Sequence to fold (620 residues):
Amino acid sequence: MNITMILDMAADAFGDRVGVVAGAQRLTYAELRQRAYAGAAYLRVSGASRVALLDVNSPAAAVAIFAAAYAGIPYVPLNYRLTRAEINALLARIAPAAVIAGGEHLALVDEREGIRVIAREAFLNLPDTDEALPEATDDPRAIAVQLFTSGTTGQPKAAILRHENLMGYIIGTVEFACAGDDDAILVTVPPYHIAGISAVLSSTYACRRMVQLEAFDAAAWIDAVQREQVSNAFVVPTMLGRIVDLLEKSAYAKLPALRSLAYGGGKMPAVTIERAMRLLPQVDFTNAYGLTETSSTIAVLGPEDHRSAITSNQPEVRRRLSSVGRPTAAVEIEIRAEDGRVLGAGEAGLVFVRGPQVSGEYLSQGQAVSQPQGSPLDAEGWFATRDRGYLDADGYLFLDGRADDVIVRGGENISPGEIEDVLLQHPAIADAAVVAIADEQWGEGVAAAIVLKPDAQASIEELQDFVKRQLRSSRVPQVIAFRDQLPYNELGKVLRRQVRQELAELQPQPQTAVA
Amino acid sequence: MAMIALKAGGRFKSAVSEVQVMVIKAPPGEHRVQCGGVDMLGANAPAPEPAAIDSADSGETLIGKRYVNADESLELLCTKGGKGSLTLGGAALEIKQAKQLPSSD
Fold:
């Protein structure tokens, strides 16, 4: 079992179909395989134990995933936004390695033994290989992809996905060649994100043309949708917000070819998805929830769910617009209490997932070769996502933030999301992040970083009263700090640890201590 | 191979055509899987004695299709298409209706 099967099938059945488009560059599926063969031949000769990619989206990302698999080594896409020192520290951990680098990223790689750099264009123009490649390994446990997760403290961790995980995901969620001749998906997530990996694998297996954007920009995104007659796309919530902003205030045609828009990677604000659905009524919206450790999507809120939710008068149906939908056919999901008890419908706890696509594995720190830490799965194969949430009576999954973000105040568990939802209803508030703060009396207390709308004003007391009117007094932020903006990562996830560190330096205001 | 144990991820090739399959799921125990009326071989088995397709079999196995037995306890994914129908213990396998899944990435 090997992900090379995905490209082999696409190239055998639809070799003449265009697989990858980036600007003026086009590769058919047959050419994609030819480039992957050439890349694999280069990698074999190079003696690399890993192949890294240090680049924005380009055909090299699609070629490199499969070239690594044909060569029998893991593919390691790196975050090109890291500092030079961080990038080189990661490269030291994967040597001996070949590094494919594009444009200005070439200059970021320090000269070092065991690191061999090749420019993107050189990699894409390697000589064709006539030599038959040895059969790709059939070992389903071989590592296909290694992703460094962006730890905000300490060293990044190296998550690994095996061939059996990625194949389990693809075969469990995609039908071969389900895309039509004219279908195209616009890919804007960076190649080092799990969604960037799954976009290549899913699209190739679906035989769907991939249109790559180097980096996200709302105007460029809309232009590409129109120019390439894009039918499908995946965006993170911040991207959708910017697209909707631009569509609303400009004379763009409402993207007639676009049929399907999937989103994920963070919590979607209700107002954004509702605006998007009104603006693009012909589009099927799908919310996808997944993690790096689960080879991407494990739950899906489909187009019909979206339409029935937005038109329903029943609160429990309408609420589903804020859920991440139901588990895909490829996995099972259950909710457990802290003590491990499996919880019933409506009971909030920790989200566990099980299925062939679930890896959950990390390489041990400092280990250059593949020596995973003990299995992260329990005896029955369940993986703790560290997300909190509940399943409703019909099996829809509602998320409630990361377990690590829960505020424990005097033994009471408080979810930051619940308080943020209330704060965001305040007319003066543009953005809010709620985090734990140390409290002498209660162990932890509630603190909020607030971004006000332009020219809007609100006092700390007014905001505290606003929360108190809707939630229990224990939920009222005892510290409120105003900020020009909140720290986000490039995919629109708020960096809570950074907010927590900043607010930790502020003292609680005694007059607002509430019991 | 005659009777063999099937397990998920296992790959087999036809003795009479280009057909290749991968096991998605399989019932426990040992089974006889044939293509074109002749036992299939392990994917890495040496080239077989030339075998002729059962002349009564005019069927074809299609790339990307999933083939199942009556109770769907066996599911094979065709990874390379070609001549010959698939059977399990002599019973024909049918193409599983594809579920249209919402595209999530």
User: Anything to note?
Assistant: Chain A touches chain B through 41 residues (CB under 8 Å). The CA atoms of residues 254 and 281 of chain A lie 9 Å apart.
